[in-house]
Amino acid sequence: MKNWILLSLIFTLLFYSLAGVAQQQRFPKPEFGTGYHQPTPVTPEPRALVLEYSDVVILLIVLSLASWLALRKRSRKGMLWLSVFTLLYFGFYRNGCICAIGSVQNVALTIFDPGYAISITTLLFFLLPLVFTLYFGRTFCAGACPLGAIQDLLIIKPLSLPEWLRKTLGLLPYLYLSLAVLFAATGTDFIICRYDPFVGIFRMDAPFHMVILGIAFLLMGMFVARPYCRFLCPYGVLLNWMSGFSKWHLRITPAACIQCKLCSDSCPFDAIDYPTDEKQIKNRIWGVNRFLVYALLIPIWILVGGYTGSKAHTWISKANSKVYLAELLITKPEVRNDDKNLDVQAFLSSGKSMETLVNEASVIRHKFYIGCWIAGGFMGLVIGMTLLSQVIYRRKEDYQPDKGNCYSCVRCISYCPVKK
Amino acid sequence: MENNPKNSRREFIRKGSRISLLLTLGAVGGFAARNLTPEKYVWQIDPFKCTQCGRCATSCVMTPSAVKCLHAYDLCGYCDLCGGYLKPDPNKLSTAAENQLCPTSAIQRKYIEEPYFEYVINEDLCIGCAKCVKGCTSFGNGSLHLQIIHRICLNCNECSIARLCPSDAISRVKASKPYLVKGSFTKDAKG
């Protein structure tokens, strides 16, 4: 037993002396004769964890305030000031990161990659607005979203868009969401963050093309109100689903509607439904037939969408750097001699074998194949459902907000002549 | 309203949908919570993986980049002929600008005693181009190395340098140990 201890002791000593040799430097640090005081490298601490949690608390407060202002206080002025606060705090002070819109990708990545740890803050930023919307409508969009706030404050002369255009452009957020989830789940990229048009404005610093994009969105937003929210925002898709079934939602009139139409003129987002036109419902039989045809077409839409997606997967998967690199090395072996291609040179000097890279790339590509089927099928479903919703007439007696698309910005309330 | 069967049916459907949406949210949240961490994560460069490609200077969302050169003095040889400070084949071993490798003159050379010189990085001037790091790693001890300085880093949801790093040297580390400074952080003891 004693021998064993001695042996292990010798080995440990030997190991340490060897390790010492391995760490020997080319030019050992000199012994200074003069009283030289060696400085230590300055390493400033990152933002404290407490402040991250306080962001969640502030989000919770802002969400509660926004809901109270929309549903109880019914005050446009209050909502305006709240959105100014959101813009200043979550926008310019926190530089637009982390935001609920981007958190979709973190959640998608952590679901598909168990190695990716998601912080409590991020998960709460994802969940809290959705839960609030499920009960109070999209008050998040009105008061707690910096991207919404910057666009909302710059609405000057909103134009009313025709319904066909709104519905068609309204498909874009679904496409954006499916691509964002696909790219996040395969660990490729966070496209929502990368192409966030306003984050450069919050940071006062961005690549040139993003500055142009951000300014273009703001200019467009003067006439087409909230263009990003309506025709791009991927988180808006989820909020739309939640808000459609919200328990309490903003109501335009405090009492009975007198059908004066004033509110519908006030809404910059065309999110107020008109009372049903009786003439439209006359030919109901025709409507029922169309409904059946459209409903039966949905599975076909899904298949077509999925098939199209799967056909595009080779092309889409090139967004992944590993897939791209592997393909580049196979199709153009001469890049190995290109000293300027940093990715190729870094790969060659890393000592990783080509086989490993190709294996990794093909695993990722297979993920893309499955993901593209799902994303394409989802897009098919969305198109089918959008068409189906064209032939569903739900009788409405008054002017009321379209729950899914209403941002609860409270503009319409101040236009309503009915008082309690 | 309450007695109208149509309205109560709609209300029932809405309530059912709401509960199922809430359950879906709970399921998604719960599933994501498998990997939940109370820790904060920040981006950092592994100096042993870094290949000094120079993208840190250009790819960061901040201008100038949040990546700066950090000097691990413990590892420095205090050489007169410094591979990180001087251009290859310098005219003279002096501080003249034509001899300096750093494009912004961010490295200060200070005489200590014969024949040793101290090199200090001026963080405000450093742009994170890694030219000195390449020189120091190739010809010297590798005491100069890049690190993300958290005073400047915005901790983006996805680091735009990490996305483009050819050697995957940038990854998320726990905010309680936010730096991988050479010397205290070694190649073998990763964690």
Summarize it.
By secondary structure, chain A is mainly alpha-helical. Chain A has 21 helices and 3 strands. Helices cover 65% and strands 1% of the residues of chain A.
Count of helical segments of chain A? 21
Could you give a short account of the major beta sheet of chain A? 2 strands, antiparallel
Distance N to C terminus of chain B:
64 Å
Largest sheet of chain B: 2 strands, antiparallel
Explain what you see.
By secondary structure, chain A is an all-alpha fold. Chain A folds into 2 domains: 52-275 and 401-415, no CATH class; 280-390, no CATH class. Chain A has 21 helices and 3 strands. A two-stranded antiparallel sheet of chain A has the order 2-3. In chain A, helix 3 crosses helix 7 (146-152). Chain A is globular. With 191 residues, chain B is α+β, with helices and mostly antiparallel strands. Chain B folds into 2 domains: 5-35; 41-174, no CATH class. In chain B, 25% of the residues lie in helices and 18% in strands. Chain B has helices spanning 5-32, 55-59, 131-139, 160-164; strands at 36-37, 41-45, 67-71, 107-113, 116-121, 144-148, 170-174. In chain B, the strands form 3 sheets. In chain B, strands 2-7 form a two-stranded antiparallel ribbon. In chain B, strands 3-6 form a two-stranded antiparallel sheet. In chain B, a hairpin with a 2-residue loop joins strand 4 (107-113) and strand 5 (116-121). The N and C termini of chain B lie far apart (64 Å). The mean pLDDT of chain B is 89. The chains are: A mainly alpha (420), B alpha+beta (191). The interface between A and B is large, with 67 and 64 residues. Strand 1 of chain A pairs parallel with strand 1 of chain B.
Top keywords for this entry?
heterodimer, A: 420 residues, mainly alpha, 2 domains, two-stranded antiparallel sheet, 21 helices, 65% helix, B: 191 residues, alpha+beta, two-stranded antiparallel ribbon, 4 helices, 25% helix, elongated
Secondary-structure map:
The complex is a heterodimer of chains A (420) and B (191).
Chain A: H1 2-22, H2 49-73, H3 76-93, H4 100-112, E1 118-119, H5 120-136, H6 139-144, H7 146-152, H8 163-169, H9 172-185, H10 191-194, H11 199-203, H12 208-221, H13 227-231, H14 234-244, H15 262-266, E2 272-273, H16 278-281, H17 284-316, H18 321-331, H19 342-350, H20 354-390, E3 400-401, H21 411-415
Antiparallel strand pairs in A: 2-3
Helix pairs in contact in A: 2-3, 2-5, 3-7, 4-5, 4-9, 5-14, 9-14, 9-20, 17-20, 18-20
Chain B: H1 5-32, E1 36-37, E2 41-45, H2 55-59, E3 67-71, E4 107-113, E5 116-121, H3 131-139, E6 144-148, H4 160-164, E7 170-174
Antiparallel strand pairs in B: 2-7, 3-6, 4-5
